[in-house]
Structure formats: structure tokens, C-alpha cells
Amino acid sequence: MDALWMLPLLLVPLLLLTSSTFVFYFKKCFYVAWMMMLAVIAIPICILKSGGRDIENMRVIRFLVRHVKYLLGLRFEVSGWEHLQMDGPYVIISNHQSSLDVLGLMEVLPDRCTMIAKKELIYAGTVGIICWLGGIVFINRQKTSDAKSVMADAAKTMLKEQIRLWVFPEGTRNQKGDLLPFKKGAFHLAVQAQVPIIPIVFSSYSNFYLRKEREFKSGTISLKVLPKIETKGLTSDDVSSLSDQSYAIMRSTFLEISGRTPQSNGPSSAH
Ligand SMILES: CCCCC/C=C\C/C=C\CCCCCCCC(=O)SCCNC(=O)CCNC(=O)[C@H](O)C(C)(C)COP(=O)(O)OP(=O)(O)OC[C@H]1O[C@@H](n2cnc3c(N)ncnc32)[C@H](O)[C@@H]1OP(=O)(O)O
Ligand SMILES: CCCCCCCC/C=C\CCCCCCCC(=O)OC[C@@H](O)COP(=O)(O)O
Q1: What ipTM goes with this model?
Q2: Phi and psi angles of residue 137, each rounded to the nearest 5 degrees, phi first
Q3: Above 90 in pLDDT, residue 56?
Q4: What number does the ligand 2 atom closest to the CA of 96 have?
């Protein structure tokens, strides 16, 4: 009789663990909580090492984030490393599916590289503070003129301080199974600084992470670094074609590494 009372105690956790919805919410909450906790550890280290906001803090962040993939059952298969073996500043562009992209980003993040991010991220508690300490450039997406002037300053800083910048040209997270049309900021940035663009493509997360269906399984992500696209001699008149060229190569790579076949030419860059 006593053993019967124990049954629900054993069954409830078992049912929860086998429920994919429970696993989804558990992994998501764990991810946020763990990143916030890692940031608590990283903040004093960064302040002691660099005295404040400094791109060199990205090394500390990269080191501390690298293990998180194992905790979530994720693996990355990186190809094209050789394209990142380049001196001097450049602009990295990549597709953006989820906040999980940070894990792949930290797998390949070169030295002296930081990101362009929406300004709202600075309010994300300890994660916001660590983003600021890591030299992330915050832009106001609602005010294009402000964003343009911040990015124009960033172009000058890139050259002066030999910095690389990582931009998500879709401008928002997207899990529609294709790339969104590209915004132009990343391309203006590269042209203004006259630095190359290095495209990096993450394969689709749809085989392990489905937000609407509340599924978050283990999975492997392919990360492909593509050859640089030169911008030397280009002007603002060339930005649209540069964006279209980058979009086309990244889209075909996305479909290829996600095991899909192109069904249409897809959206062209946003005009
Ligand atoms: C140890 C503990 C760790 C715990 C924490 C772990 C990690 C933390 C550390 C790191 C994590 C960082 C992760 C960061 C991820 C952040 C992801 C994001 O926030 S994505 C969202 C923000 N990013 C972007 O929006 C970039 C892309 N957007 C753009 O580039 C846009 O172009 C824009 C500059 C924002 C402007 O937006 P708009 O909608 O107006 O875009 P259009 O492209 O349509 O442009 C309109 C018009 O303006 C011209 N234009 C655009 N930019 C420029 C420019 N720089 N100079 C001149 N002109 C510009 C453009 O050409 C259009 O004109 P036209 O139509 O005539 O061509
Ligand atoms: C007290 C505030 C608590 C807030 C907690 C949020 C903390 C986030 C915690 C863990 C995630 C760590 C990685 C953070 C970087 C994620 C950046 C990101 O993916 O931002 C979304 C942005 O690209 C596009 O935004 P939208 O898709 O347009 O919307």
C-alpha cells in the first residue's frame, strides 16, 4: 500500500522528462539562466583585466561560452576555417535564427571581433552588461538615421583600432526556413571602411529546434565560412549589388547545408 503512494512521485518526473514541451521550456530557461550566471562570473574578470569596455573582453566571453553547447546537446561542424585566417579588419555577416546563434558565433569568433546588436539587448540584465563590456555596438533599429551614424563611426573605429565587426544583415531572428531580405547597413559599413566581407552560414535549426511546435532536441549545426568578398574601390552606389551578391551566395549555401533544394530565387535584398 505504501509503495502505491510512491507511484505518482516516480511517474510525474518521468512523464515530464519524456514530454517534449517540458524539455523545450526546461532547456530554454536553463540556457537563459546559465548565460546570465556566466555573465555574473565574466563581469568582474573583464573589469579586472581590461578596466571596462574593451573588445579584448570578447576573449573571456568566448572562453566562458564554449561549453554551453554540450549542456544543450548541440554540436557544431565548422568548415572553411581558412577563410578567417586573414589579418586586419573585416565585416562578418551571418544568418540569424535564434539567440542560440551566440553559441555558433563563439565557436568561430576571431580575435578583435565584436557585434552590432539592437540597443534593447543592453537591458538584458547581466547579459546586457557583458555585451557592453565586450564592446558590442548598439543600434536603434527604429531610428535609421541614428543607426547609420553609429555605423559610420564604427567604420572609422574599425580602421583605427583594427577591429572586426559581426553583423546579422537580416536584422532580426528568422526561422522561416529561408533567409530574410538583407538590410543594407553591413554593406555600407564594409564599403565605408573599404574592408572585405566574410559570409558565415548556419544550417537550419529546424531538425532540432522548433519554436512554434515547442521542440528542442539534440542536434548538429553546420557552420560554413565562405570566401571573402572584396569591397576595395566600391562606393555606396555598389551597395545594392554587393548585398544581392552576398544574399545569393549565402542563400544557396544555407539551402545546401540544410539539405534543401532551392525552390525559388527567394527574396532579393530590401530596397
Ligand atoms: C560569459 C557570459 C556570456 C553571456 C552572454 C553571451 C553572449 C553575449 C555576447 C555576445 C552576444 C552578442 C550577440 C549579438 C546578437 C545581436 C543580434 C541583433 O541584435 S540583430 C538586430 C540588430 N542588427 C541589425 O539590425 C543589423 C542589420 N540592420 C541594418 O544593417 C539596417 O540597415 C539598419 C542600419 C539598422 C537600418 O535599418 P532599416 O530598416 O532602415 O534598413 P535598410 O537597410 O532598409 O536601410 C534604409 C536606407 O538606409 C540606407 N542605409 C542603411 N545603412 C546605412 C549606412 N550605414 N550608411 C548609409 N546608408 C545606409 C540603405 O541603403 C537604405 O537606403 P536605400 O533604400 O536608398 O538603399
Ligand atoms: C532582466 C532582463 C532579463 C532578460 C533575459 C534575457 C537574457 C538573454 C539570455 C541569454 C541569451 C544569451 C545570448 C544573448 C544574445 C541574444 C541576442 C539575440 O538573439 O537578440 C535578438 C536580436 O538579435 C533580434 O531581435 P528580434 O528577433 O528582432 O527580437
Answers
A1: 0.94
A2: -90, 120
A3: yes
A4: 23
CA angle, 162 then 166 then 169, to 5°: 135
Q: Whose CA is nearest to atom 38 of ligand 1?
A: 144
Domain boundaries, the chain: 2-257
Strands 197-202 and 113-118: unpaired
Tens digits of per-residue pLDDT, 140-159?
Answer: 999 999 999 999 999 999 99
Cα of 262 to ligand 2 centre, how many Å? Answer: 30
Among 127, 139, 202, residue to substitute to test ligand 2 (most atoms within 8 Å of Cβ): 127
Find where cell 580602421 sits.
159
Would you say the CB of residue 116 lies under 6 angstroms from ligand 1? yes
Q: Are 204 and 97 spatial neighbours (Cβ–Cβ below 8 Å)? A: yes
Instruction: Please name the residue that has the C-alpha cell 527574396.
Output: 267
- The per-residue pLDDT for range 129-145, each reduced to its tens digit, is 999 999 999 999 999 99
Q: Which fold has domain 2-257?
A: Glycerol-3-phosphate (1)-acyltransferase (3.40.1130)
